[in-house]
Specification:
globular
Length: 188
């Protein structure tokens, strides 16, 4: 099956973005999975995800939190069209954030109460943030093209990643290339 794979440039953007999130004190400490298929969300996955992330960003900004996230869209055999979103949510906001994700998915036409539509986790089984984020990045980047996977030491899993049309992964502006370059210039 031929489909869009994650390029080395895109993977590096996500990896550097995750590092930058930590540098700006906004570590990607939550793993949000939204199965747009299970939630029976109409329309394009990318559009629904974009709207949910815009709403999440506004909600976080209102609470004085810098919106920081990295994401990958997959279309695997189990969850079908779904998003992996690594996002910064301070502990004091996690319970309300979970409720709001349900609200946002409903707002884009999905049914968040469908079993398996939304999962949010905080990986506490790792000793350090570096260990946790490394494993999560390897997991969400499983759709890497073969050369990039070899360079980064990630085992691709094209069956689980599935076929995706359009943009496959990205980051928030706060941890994207422009923000990282501005941060580097300020530090110099």
């Amino acid at each position: 099956m031929s489909f869009k794979k994650i390029s080395l440039t895109s993977a590096e953007n996500i990896i550097h973005g995750a590092g930058h999130a930590c540098a700006i004190d906004a570590p990607l400490n939550r793993h949000l999975i939204i199965s747009w298929w299970v939630a029976a969300t109409p329309g394009r996955t990318l559009d629904a995800q974009r709207e949910v992330l815009q709403l999440a960003s506004k909600w976080l900004k209102y609470r004085g939190v810098t919106p920081a996230y990295a994401w990958a869209i997959e279309n695997g055999p189990k969850l079908r069209n779904h998003s992996h979103i690594l996002i910064h949510v301070p502990d004091e906001h996690q319970l309300q954030f979970r409720k709001m994700v349900n609200h946002w998915v409903k707002r884009v036409g999905g049914a968040p109460s469908n079993k398996g539509a939304i999962r949010i986790s905080r990986k506490k089984s790792y000793q350090t943030y570096d260990q946790m984020i490394r494993k999560l990045l390897q997991y969400i980047l499983k759709g890497l093209d073969l050369q990039a996977a070899e360079l980064l030491g990630i085992t691709p899993d094209y069956e689980s990643a599935g076929a995706v049309i359009g943009k496959r992964c990205g980051t928030s502006q706060s941890i994207g290339p422009k923000a990282r370059a501005e941060h580097a210039n300020q530090a110099a």
